[in-house]
Write a structure and sequence with these properties.
The chain is mainly alpha-helical and about 190 residues long. The chain has helices at about 5-20, 40-55, 70-90, 95-110, 120-125, 140-145, 150-165, 170-185; strands spanning about 25, 55-60. The longest helix has 19 residues, at about 70-90.
């Protein structure tokens, strides 16, 4: 599921789909790893990136060749997919965007800093991906907050989601309509015998 050849095939599928002008739905996050570990991270990145850049719709959140699923992995893959979508988005290269960037270069000048420029302040929040799970803080801050790795943070986030989940009921009118549609769609197969 997550060999380099599998990634190559996802890329080839994407090229074929683009050539034939067809949409492509591909499994991008299937791993041979058994747990959320370094192997799972590498396989997610390797196949996930190629699939993200090749397919229109991406699916797949399983371990061990599509056999296992766990809640922490759902949180982990959601974070990975968010970052991969950011990579796939790239950055604007249209004339207006390039002219604005050129204006910023002229404003800052040689040896200046872009940190305080109007262009940077206006655009940086849309350009920088900010993780919700991965930790980018300095070592000391990470250590002082419990030295939690990605797997532990993913499990905690999954537990928070599950503990806080409150299913939203449909209104009784909508439930009745759904039941009615289902009942009307039911075919009595014994009558055709």
């Amino acid at each position: 599921m997550s060999s380099p050849e599998s990634a190559i095939m996802r890329g080839a599928q994407g090229q074929m789909a683009r050539y034939l002008d067809l949409p492509l739905r591909a499994k991008g996050f299937l791993r041979d790893a058994k747990i959320l570990d370094a192997q799972a991270g590498f396989e997610t990145a390797m196949v996930g990136l190629v699939t993200t850049l090749s397919a229109d719709v991406i699916e797949g959140l399983q371990y061990e060749m599509d056999v296992l699923v766990d809640f922490a992995d759902l949180v982990f893959v959601n974070e990975c997919f968010s970052a991969l979508k950011r990579i796939a988005r790239g950055f604007a290269t249209d004339e207006e965007s390039l002219n604005l960037a050129l204006d910023a270069l002229k404003e800052v000048g040689h040896g200046g800093s872009f940190i305080g420029s109007k262009h940077t302040l206006k655009n940086f929040k849309d350009e920088l991906w900010r993780p919700k799970l991965f930790d980018r803080r300095p070592w000391v801050a990470w250590e002082n907050s419990g030295r939690k790795g990605a797997e532990r943070r993913a499990w905690e986030k999954a537990r928070d989601i599950l503990d806080g989940y409150q299913p939203k009921r449909l209104s009784p009118d909508i439930e009745r309509k759904i039941d009615q549609i289902a009942q009307e769609a039911t075919v009595d197969l014994t009558k055709s015998i």
